[in-house]
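User: Fold this; C-alpha cells only.

Assistant: Input:
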Amino acid sequence: MPIEQEMPLAGRAVDALAHVLLDHVACVAWSGGKDSSAVLGLVLQAALRLRTQGVSVAPILITHGDTLVENPEVRAYADAEIARIRAWGLEHGVAVKVLVARPNLTESWQMRVIGGKGLPAFPGGNHDCTTDMKIQPMQRLRKKVHREMDQDADRPVVTIIGTRFEESPQRAARMRERGESPEQVWTGDDGALYFSPIALWGMDDVWEYLGYCRSAHPDFLTFSRFEDVFRIYADAAGTTAPSWATWPRRASPSRAARAPDAPCAPPSGATRAWRP
C-alpha cells in the first residue's frame, strides 16, 4: 500500500518536502533522536522521489553534533547511522553530505573542568557547558554551511528540523511565536530559513513512522530500520518493551523515555543548538 494510504501524515510530509527541495538546499538538523531520525527519513524519501522523476536535487546536507563526551553507546549508534546514511546515498544516487560539529580545545570538557574554566554540570545546576560544547560548535558549522551554500541565490539553504507542537506547552508557544508550519518555509529570528515537516505529529505518529521503517516497508525504508533507536529508547525507559517489535499496530514506547544524555545535557526545554 502506498505511503499516502498507509500513513497519510507521512505522505503529506514527503509531498511538502519534495516541494521544498525543488527550490532550496536542504540542511537537516539530525541529532540521532527519534524526531530528527523521522525527519531525515522523510527528507531522503522526498529526495529519492524527485531523483526517480529525473528532477535535479541539491546535495542533502546533514548536520550533527558530537560533544566528544557522549554516552559511548549513543556515540557508537550515531556513527553507525552516519555510515548507513552515506552508504544509502551512494546506493541510490542521492548526494548526501554529513557534517559533524565538535567543540574546539577551549570549549572541550577537559579544558573546562580539568583546566579549571568551570565546574562539571550537575542536575539542577547551570548548564553553561551546553553553550560551549553544543550550541557554539553547531552555530559555527551552520554559518559555514550558509557561507558556502548561499552563494547559489536560486537555492537558499533551509534548515529542516523535527520540532513538534505536542512536545510541551512551552515548545508549542515558542513554535507559534516563530510561525512554524509543516506547509511552508518560515524565517527564524536569526534571519535563516527553516521548515518543520512534523510540527503537527504526535509522539505515536513518530513511532509509527519509525515502525514502518523497522518493518522494512518498501515505501518507508531509507537508510535505516531504526532498530537501535527502538533499543536505546527502551533501555532509557528501563524496559525491553517486547510489544514494540510489532509496531506500528501496537502501543508506542513510553512517553517518558528519552535517549541517554551526555554529561553536559541541557535541562528539559532548553534552547537547542540550532536556535532559530
